[in-house]
Amino acid sequence: LRLPIKCPNCRSVVELPPTGVDALPTNVSLRAIIEKYQMDNEPRPPSCQEHHRHPLNMYCIQDRQLICGLCLTVGQHQGHPIDDLQAAFIREKQTPSLLLARLSEQRWAQVCELAEQLDQDKARCEALVRQDRQEVDQFFHLLEGILARKKHAYLEALDKAAAEVSLAYDPLIHRVKELQEEQLDLVSLGSSVEDEDSPLVFLEQVHSFRERGD
Fold it and tell me: CATH says 45-93 is which class?
């Protein structure tokens, strides 16, 4: 069964060939319209801000950004390596997984080794600090013992010196106090002699006063 169809140009009715629509001649005008419609609907690349209305259709590998043709030939990206954005995307698509794999293997081993080395270094330093602390404690403990003995010896010497001072000065001070008391007694006796009216008593007291005063 052959189905009748109409020609898009002349609208004449023709039969579909046995081999199907592929056997029909290509409608160039219709194809051009379809292609133009497809191009109009495709997203256009953004324009370059430095070079007005020039599309950013190239990827600068060195600066990692989109550029236009003038950027590459006369602009700031002159001589820089370029690539197609989609091609660069596809090429670098596996980079994260490769980097992760390398980090998971080589880097992880290095990090673990470094962590172990740091732990060992820390333990060694802590052991040295503990040893120094023990030596300092022992030194000052010994020094405290020496100072305690020195202090005791000096205090004993000072106590002995204080005893010798007391032994030397206490008798003298005691004798001086006795002399002070005798002096006060003589002054009192002299005052009483002056007030005596009895000649006999006066002469006796004067004799006694003279003997004590001499």
Answer: alpha beta
